[in-house]
Amino acid sequence: MTNPSSSINRLRPYQKEVALAILDSIFSRKGLTFSVEIARQGGKNELSAQLELLLLTLYMTKPQNLIKCSPTFKPQTVISIMRLKDRLNDAGFNGLWVSELGYIIRLGNTRAIFLSADKSANVVGNTAHILLEIDESQDVSREKYNKEFKPMGATSNVTTVHYGTTWDSSTLLEEIKNSNLELERKDGIRRHFRYDWQAVAKYNPDYLSYVNAERQRLGENHPLFLTQYRLLPVHSGGGYLNHQQLAQLSGRHPRQHQPESGKIYLAGIDLAGETEEGKAQSSRDATVVTIGELNFSSCSELIKQPTINIVEHYWWTGKKYSELYPQLIDILKNIWHCRKIVVDATGMGQPVSSFLRQALGSKVLPFTFTAQSKSALGFNLLAAINSGRLKMYAGDSSAEEQEFWREMERAKSQYHPNQTMSFGVDPIQGHDDFLMSLALLVKAATQYSPRNAKGS
C-alpha cells in the first residue's frame, strides 16, 4: 500500500499547485471556493481523482462524505467513478473499498458520493463534510447549484472546487471565477487557477503535438479551440464570420458550369419550405445547391482533410418540388456525377431527400436540422474556413455570387449552454439558404472516403 501523500507528488507542477491550495483550505477549515480552468485533456480529472484518493485515505476512520457532481450521470459521473476506482486499486486498496448503490465509493467509514447535476436529478439530502467538487461547472445550471448543491456544505463550511473550461459570460464557472478574482484583489488569497494549453504542453510533448494539430484543423479563433484550449470566453450576438474568415473563404479559381474529367465532386442542398399549394415560400427562402470539388493533394501531416473548392451554385425560388426533382437528378447524376450529397431532410425536406436517395442511392445522405446537429454543422464550417480548406470561386458578378457573400457577411452566431451554438441570418435582413447549403457541402466532404486502388 502506497503512502497517501505520494499521489499528490505524482501530479504535474500546475496540478500540484491547485491540490495544495485545496488541501490547505480543507485542513485549515477555511471553507474557500476555488475555480480551476485547465485546458481540455490537461489533467483536471486526474487532479480530482488524486485529491479524492488522498482524502478518502486520510479520513477513512470518520463517517464523512466528499461529494462530486457532473452535468450528466452518463457518461461524465460514471467516468469519474471509474477513475477513482482505478486510483484506489493502483494505491493498493483493491478489496478494501466498497461500491454502494452504483454511485458511492466507500473506504472505511468515508464515502465519495458521485451525483448528476442534471436539472431533473434528485440530489437533495446529501451532505458534504470534506469537499464539494463541481465538474464541468460551465455546463451546470446556476439555479441547480445554488439551490441544491451549495447548501450541501453549509453545516461544515466545506471547501468547494469548480472545475472546467470557459464558454461564455453567462456560465456558473464564469460567475465563480469573477467572484474569486474580486476576492483575490481584496485579500490576496489565490482562489482562481488557470492553465491554458501552453501551460499544459510544457510538461507533455505529446499534448503539444496534439493541440498544434487541433489548432491547424480548427483555427486558433474557432469557438471550441478558443474556449477549450486557450480558455478565452466567446461572445454571443456577433458576426458568424469575421473579416479574416471572409477573406480566407475567398478563392481565386473560376466558377465552373460543368465538371472536369477525373475530379471528385460533392453537393450540399438546402431546400426551401413548401406551402400547402406545393410552391416554395418565395418570400422566406429558396432551394440552393452548392457543388464543391475535393482536392486531396493539399493534405498534410497536420491537416489530413482535403480542400473544398466551391465551383457552382444552383438557386431556385418559388419552384414546386415536383418540378425540381428531374432537374436535381440531372444535375447531381448526369452533369456532376456527385460522389456524396447531403440534403436538408427537415420537415417537408424529408420526402425530397427520400426521393433523391431512391434515385441516386447511398451517396445521398439526409440531414435533419436540430439545435444539436445545426450547432455541429456550424462548428465544422468554421473549422473548414479557418484552416483554409474551403474556398469560394472568384467573383463573377452573378446573382448567385452576390447573394452568397451577402449571406456570409450578414450571418450572426449565438452561443448557448453545453458548448452549442446557433448561426444564420436574421430573417429581417434576408435569407441564409446559401450559408446552409455551404455547411451541408462541408458535411458531405467529411462523409466521403476515397477508394484505395487495388492491384493484382
Quick gist of this model?
The protein contains 15 helices and 16 strands. By secondary structure, the chain is an alpha/beta fold. The protein folds into 2 domains: 200 residues, Rossmann fold (3-Layer(aba) Sandwich), CATH 3.40.50.300; 212 residues, Nucleotidyltransferase, domain 5 (2-Layer Sandwich).
Give a description of the structure.
The protein has 456 residues and is of the alpha/beta class. It is built from 15 helices and 16 strands. It has helices spanning 6-9, 13-27, 44-58, 73-90, 142-149, 172-187, 197-201, 205-218, 223-228, 243-249, 321-335, 349-360, 371-386, 399-410, 433-447, and strands at 33-38, 65-70, 97-100, 104-107, 110-116, 131-134, 159-164, 192-195, 264-270, 287-295, 307-316, 340-344, 364-367, 390-391, 412-416, 420-424. The strands form three sheets. It has an eight-stranded mixed beta sheet with strand order 3-4-5-2-6-7-1-8. Helix 2 runs parallel beside helix 3 and helix 13 crosses helix 15. The longest helix is centred in the N-terminal third of the chain and has 18 residues, at 73-90.
Secondary structure: elements and pairs:
Layout: H1 6-9, H2 13-27, E1 33-38, H3 44-58, E2 65-70, H4 73-90, E3 97-100, E4 104-107, E5 110-116, E6 131-134, H5 142-149, E7 159-164, H6 172-187, E8 192-195, H7 197-201, H8 205-218, H9 223-228, H10 243-249, E9 264-270, E10 287-295, E11 307-316, H11 321-335, E12 340-344, H12 349-360, E13 364-367, H13 371-386, E14 390-391, H14 399-410, E15 412-416, E16 420-424, H15 433-447
Parallel strand pairs: 1-7, 1-8, 2-5, 2-6, 6-7, 9-12, 11-14, 12-13
Antiparallel strand pairs: 3-4, 4-5, 9-10, 10-11, 15-16
Helix pairs in contact: 2-3, 3-4, 11-12, 13-15
